Amino acid sequence: MEEPDQEFTREILRKVRQIEIRSNRLVSEALAGSYHSAFKGQGIDFEEVREYQPGDEVRSIDWNVTAKMGFPFVKQYREERELTILLAIDVSKSTQWGSTHRSKRDKLAELGALLAFSANRNGDKIGLLLFSDQVEKFLPPAKGQKHVLRVLREILFHQNHGRGTDLNEGLRFLNRVMRRRAVVFLMSDFIIPEYDSEEETREDLFLKELATTRRKHDLVCCQVHDSMEKELPSVGRVIFEDSETGETKLINTSDKRFQSRYKTYTKDIQESFARQLRRRGIDNFEFSTSSDYAKTLQEFFNTRGNRIKR
Known about the structure:
single chain; two-stranded antiparallel sheet; 2 domains; 310 residues
């Protein structure tokens, strides 16, 4: 009989290989071009001067070379395409829940894998930050297939130290250690616990830290939800347990008034969160545990790419 650690290792390799194959196929078939066009490089490098051609910007004329040669030359620049991608993933207990066989963390792992393989295909660096109510794991950005596979293993199989959620803690760490500008994918269900007796709520603190991250980096919020979190099924009286605090509550899911209030409440929260992000110029997209996250990601890349071209 195999030792438990050998069985666990075998399971890790099997699951990593499955996601690697699927992600590479999706990158090849759908995402390669749209990923490239959705993000600008880190800056502009001077490449060469060439003779002026009709239609060139007058502002690009190199007057020193023009004076020496007696006819106009223009400066030509090349965009530095290499990006630094950081996956900042919420691995708190609330993300480990799912009403089907797929949890929110499973979906975040698959999305993270797709982004990591897209970055690797484009020659970009990829880093990883896992957090709950504390920083769980940090892998500095690096290149290469071996590094990408390590990133994927950590996303899938990291064993948590904390149970709760503190998005502020994750963002504070990110803002402290990431000195160079990066494209940050902040991946979470964005269920933010509330303080009972604080002047400033945890959401207020989170939005402040989010704004700081946005000033330093190109920030994208990726929000995952389970369908039952938006609309409860009518299955009678059910005991619900908070996965992070252990608190329980008996709820009659067949009560039509409660169902209506619950649906309105969750919709209002989502719309308010989306407004707060738009107000700060932060891109975001949302997907569920039952939706095609690859299609959602491609649509986001295409929309963003078209906006950058304009």
